Amino acid sequence: MWTIKRFPLLWLLPALLPVLLMTLYPIGHALWTSLHRVMILFPGEPFVGLDNYKRVMASSYFYDALKNSLVFTFFAAPSVVVIGVLVALFLQRRFFGSQIVRSVVLLPWVLPGAISAVLWIWVFHPSFGVLNAILRSLNIIDRSIPWLISPQLAPISVTIAHVWTQIPFAVILTMAALSTINSETLDAAALDCRSSFKRFRYVLFPEIRSMIVVLLVYNSLIAFTGYDLVYAMTSGGPGTATTLLSFQIWRESFSMYDFGAGSAVAFIVVLISATLIIAITRALPSDLFGGDEP
Amino acid sequence: MTGRLNPVLTFFFAAVIILFTGGPVLLSLYGSLVPDRILLDSSKSIFTEGPNFETYRYIFTGELPKSYLTEGANRAMISDAARQVPQSLINSAIIAFSAMSLNLLFGAPAAYIFARYVFPGKKLTFLFLILSPLVPAVALITPIYMALQSIGLVGTRLGIILVHTAKALPFTVLILSVFFRKMPAEIFEAAVLDHCSRFQSFFRLALPLAMPSIGATGLFAFMLSYSEFMFSLVLSGDARTRPVSVVMAALARNTDVSWSLLNTAIFIAIIPTLVLVILVWKFVVEGLLSGAVKG
């Protein structure tokens, strides 16, 4: 790694400028909104300090939604990465039909989110659902399982659907990272290590560690800040069983027209996801974020 | 590469992966080929009635399927939105391809500098890039809409392209810098000895060697734009600029629309994308496996 004395503006500006334009003003605006009372029904936008934050945190849904979001993220993000890495390791080998499997794995990616939701409702539907039909015809169950209606099962069902939508991306990046490993390293590992688990643990994993960190960060963000799929599948129900914190931003802002409260929830989400990212990079140290050592 | 699995286990894992990732899509293919009355009738199936392409014909030519013209048929089950699918695919292709190109164009130099050099302000700029996607999109939609409206970009493809580019850029830079860092340092040291400028070693060495990785990253930027829904919905205008994700969501949320028409739309929408993704991915895998970047 070489040192440059001056800030390489020419190299970085193309990447920084669009991000700056698209984030600085909107984030500033949202922050301003979260500190003022901005409601369509009330004229004037008085400064209220942290009132919006207090009001949101005192509301009845807040802790339910926070808990749901955290549980969802803690299960969804690692599942995506673990399954993605396993599938990628499996697809590295060549076997009859490996090309077909490599292509089929990409399918969930090309479906727009609204469509994934419809397909998974079709799978989990209590009376018409395919999953229940299969289980019934195999005589495993005699009564339909209420996948999306029971408060215990609904969070599991939406997590499975969410993991399904994110797997192709994890597989692709892990395969790409695996393929950049020096072939001599692999040959040496094949001689030194007999167990394939140890080979993964001591040779492959360190090589793809930074990609795994990227994937974990990306997936935690997606799971914690997105809500489209879950909302399209269950509308947050039954009760509040699948109501996510990020969905409350939309509900406060665009359904209750309380933009101040909506932005306050947004910044609570920002704080928590920043904590998550720092936790991930601390737990899995990689050269990615420090950048001082080669 | 890792260990040997016996063929039965290999077959088993392959079947599980195919069933999990492809299963729901197979359901939709089946749904598109049989009219609803056969789908919901347990005594009939595609084997007794044969496949039915009427809904496909409707989307491309506008000719109503026979089953909807009979007495007492519910005409609400047909939606005009389904006929927007072909145009929306063109819109999505333009938007996603532009967002991808801009991402690689803007992101690659930054990723290269982040991966290979230490410079003042590095941590701060990197931190900014990583933390910028933290704010949930819902909270930003109003200010971004107002900003784009003031420069007249609402209802145009350009507005959507700009937002998608900015949304994907932090991740593009992050992923690309992982790949650039993986390259052996020796080739760059050799380049310095040969009096290559920073610019030359980036263009002549790093870029060509990283082609497969750039392909994978480009695929990511393309798909992020293709599947993004919220900004596309708010920033697109009429059917001439509406991308696939918006049209499909309109269809999926219209509970009146017949199941077979919805599935037909799904199929028409995903086939071109799937072909494209598989082609690029084949190029990426072959490039990576041939050892172009292993040095």
Distance between the termini of chain B: 19 Å
CATH domain class name of the largest domain in chain B: Mainly Alpha
- Please work out how many helical segments of chain B DSSP would assign: 14
Low-confidence stretches of chain B: none
Domain module count of chain B? 2
The CATH topology name of the largest domain in chain B reads MetI-like fold
Q: Using DSSP, what is the number of strands of chain A?
A: 1
The protein's oligomeric status is: heterodimer
Helix content of chain A: over 70%
Count of DSSP strands of chain B: 1
What is the helix/strand order of chain B?
Answer: HHHHHEHHHHHHHHH
Q: H/E element string of chain A?
A: EHHHHHHHHHHHHHH
CATH topology of chain A: MetI-like fold
Radius of gyration of chain A: 23 Å
Number of helices of chain A: 14
Averaging pLDDT over every residue of chain A, what do you get?
Answer: 80
What would the principal axes of the Cα set say about the shape of chain A? Answer: flat
How much helix, percentage-wise, in residues of chain B? Answer: over 70%
Describe the structure.
The complex is a heterodimer of chains A (294) and B (295). With 294 residues, chain A is an all-alpha fold. Chain A has a single domain, classed as MetI-like (MetI-like fold), CATH 1.10.3720.10. Chain A has helices spanning 9-34, 51-58, 62-92, 98-104, 107-110, 113-124, 130-137, 153-179, 183-192, 196-225, 228-234, 245-255, 259-283, 287-290, and one strand spanning 2-3. In chain A, helix 6 (113-124) crosses helix 8, helix 6 packs parallel to helix 11 and helix 12 (245-255) runs antiparallel to helix 13 (259-283). The radius of gyration of chain A is 23 Å and the shape is flat. By secondary structure, chain B is mostly helical. Chain B has two domains: 7-81, no CATH class; 84-289, MetI-like (MetI-like fold, Orthogonal Bundle). In chain B, 71% of the residues lie in helices and 1% in strands. Chain B has helices spanning 7-33, 36-39, 46-49, 54-61, 85-116, 122-131, 137-150, 157-182, 185-193, 198-209, 211-227, 230-235, 244-253, 259-289, and one strand at 117-118. In chain B, helix 5 runs parallel beside helix 8 and helix 13 packs antiparallel against helix 14. The mean pLDDT of chain B is 78. The interface between A and B is large, with 106 and 108 residues. Strand 1 (2-3) of chain A pairs parallel with strand 1 (117-118) of chain B, so a sheet runs across the interface.
